[in-house]
Task: structure prediction
Amino acid sequence: MTNNSLYRSLDKQLPTFNALTKRIMGSPRHPHRLTLIVVLVIFIAQPVSAQSQTSNWTSITEERLLSPDAGDWMNYRRTYDVTGFSPLTQINRTNVNDLRLVWAYSVEDNTRWVPTPVVANGLMYIAEGSGRVMAFDATTGDIAWTHERTYPDDVRRSQAYGKHRGVSVYGDWIYWGTADSHLVALDARTGEQVWEVATGDYTTDGGHSHPALIADGKVFIGQTGGDTGVRGRFSAHDAETGELVWRFYTVPREGEPGFETWRTGGEVPPLGGAPWNTISYDPELGLVYFGTGQPYPWSATLRGQGDALYTNSTLALDADTGELRWHHQLQPEDSWDRAVFESMLVDLTIDGRERKALIQTSKVGWGLVLDRETGEFIHAFPTAYDNLILGWTEEGRPVLDTELVPTQGDVDTGNEFTVCPFYYGGRDLNSPSYSPLTGLYYLGVNHTCMVATFVTEDYRPGSIYRGMRASPTLAPGYDYVGEFAAFDPVEGERRWGYRTESGAAMTASALATAGGIVFGGTAAREFFALDVETGEPLWQTRLNGDISGAPVTFEIDGKQYLAVGAGGRIAQTQFYARLTDTPIAPGSGVIWVFALP
Result:
């Protein structure tokens, strides 16, 4: 169906649609009026076929992944450096206000859905936590295929269940890490399974919720489970066969480097440090980068004192051998769940010197700039309200306010610690974006704190083991939570900030484009576009729920499209919405696709 014929079809059905919309919107007692409108839009926009996209399939080579065309979005953050930047300009600051819905689709997931679509050869691929991968004609929304996995009855023992964020594409296959701890290859054209390999035991080793990164003929993948006592591991598999090439454990055993940083006076050995997040890759250096989660148990009052390597760290491994080249620990001796997220790889001129840099922002209210070749700390800059970290040593170790660090004497006393940010962070899964045109780093941040007490807790294998109880609060001096900001990573300065009228938490990843715009979104269903230079609002719309996914943009047959997932009811929404009296929309997640008329 062409765009013109689709619009003619919509025109014929608009009178009926408008009448029903009026009836629904006019009924204040109807609790599902928005959901019904979404369903109507989806129904009247359904196209007829996606076969043309599958028949025109061209293999996704490593060269295409290394140097994607401007209109491609074939990796999780588009490129190996995970800048989340698009060079497309058709949608720009002069016309973004004209964006119109092209198609939408309601998925099965209704909680913790944080989707990032990938688009290859005109097909869009989306994963769901329930165990489903779908392929759509990216221009029309027609379903090309659906692959559904039958999970074991006890799959909820895997922390990955219900939280899937995306898939990867390479050659003619889709690569999918599953909640029941398998790496699966699907035919990208049909959805048929090609092979699968077990990567662990989901009942004890966690599963996979985040997409793999594929480079150098290998599939690099991390795993979840750090909250439930899994020992973190990061693996490389052969892209053709799935065979394990190497594996790196992020928590050492006795006799291994780093074990001396754990004082294991508790009931469990060193655990946690799950590498469950976004992976990046430098082909020139041959290094793969990833971040790790908190120790297990969370609190040092249960675990024993010590830095607890390699938790809360950025790690750089040799892509060929898995050998650790360097590490930087963001939060030693953690008691507040300060997980580390993606490593963005950019080249910066700092103090007159060209640096192969790495920018990392995580749950703490700071951004760090490191040398990605050596791990050397260059500098840090504030991003969100933080009262725990007072500054940084020359080596890049945080200087903490000792009044906020719990001791054994605080356990079971009711002593309260107001620590900022809350444990879902100054940011969480909402990834940043960097524009090489402006030299700015864009990120949605949240200003929050937590009132925490530290308690005795019984250890139960496979369960969350915190030793801490906490509730979120607004940061002092703030009557809002969310702010979208632009930072200069060279000078360490904030250039501008923007917040919506709702003041709601920032939930969406950032997407900067060469069209002079950057996209973001909030827990209050607000999906917006800002001027990259000034932060001036250019466009905003309300979708079905919190803007839970990462916006992506791509081009097919000369037309630029914009896609985003909403309604995932993610962690920031569920914990921070109460601070701004933001209603949490019920219902399931929806993928939305926009374009210019």
User: Anything to note?
Assistant: Residues 3-25 form the longest helix (23 residues). The helical segments are 3-25, 33-44, 51-55, 62-66, 202-205, 300-303, 571-576. The longest strand covers residues 353-361. The mean pLDDT is 91.
